[in-house]
Amino acid sequence: MNFNHYFNNDELETVLKAWAEKYPELVYLCAAGRSHEGRPIWLFSITNFSSGPDHEKPAIWLDGNIHATELAGTTTVLCILQYLLENYGTDEQVTRLLDASTFYAIPRINPDGAAAALSAPTSHHSGQQHWPKLASGGEPDARALKYA
C-alpha cells in the first residue's frame, strides 16, 4: 500500500473491503453507523475466528480521524491493520496475538470532516453539522449549548 498520501473516504472503503475479501478467516467488516451526512463509519474487526468468537476474547481498540484534520490517525490505523494481516501465520507474536485477542478498529470516525479537510485548504475542527443560531442572530457560545 502507498501510505504517501491521505486516503479519501472512497479509497478507505476500497482498502477495507479488499482486506475483508482477502482475509475472510481474520476479518469482519461492517458499518458501525452513519455520519451526519450519511457516510458509513466502518468498523473493522481482526481476530482468528477459528480460535473463538471475537466477543469472547480480550480486545484492543483502535480509532483515528476523530477531528476533521486528524487524517494521519487513519493512516496509522491502516498501517497497524496491514501489519497484522500480512504477518499473521508467519510472525509468531502476531499469530499468537490474533489467536488469543481481537482488534476492533474504526480508522475514520469522522468521514464528513475528513471529506471537508481533503477538499478545501481550511481548518475544520469537527463534523459538518450546523449549530443553531442564537435568537439574536449571532453564533452560539459553545458553553451555552444544551444537548437533548
Characterize this entry briefly.
This protein is an alpha+beta fold.
Describe it.
- This protein is α+β, with helices and mostly antiparallel strands and 148 residues long.
- It has one domain (9-144): Zn peptidases (Aminopeptidase).
- It has helices spanning 9-22, 71-87, 92-100, 111-119; strands at 27-34, 40-46, 59-63, 102-106.
- It has a four-stranded mixed β-sheet.
- The longest helix is centred in the middle third of the chain and has 17 residues, at 71-87.
- The chain is elongated, with a radius of gyration of 18 Å.
In percent, how much strand structure appears in the residues?
A: 15-25%
Mean pLDDT: 88
Tell me the series of helices and strands, N- to C-terminal. HEEEHHEH
Determine the oligomeric state from the structure.
single chain
Distance between the termini: 43 Å
By CATH, the architecture is named: 3-Layer(aba) Sandwich
> Mind telling me the CATH superfamily name?
Zn peptidases
* Range of helix content: 25-40%
Instruction: Name the poorly predicted regions.
Output: none
Overall spatial form: elongated
Counted up, domains total 1
Rg on CA atoms, Å: 18 Å
CATH topology: Aminopeptidase
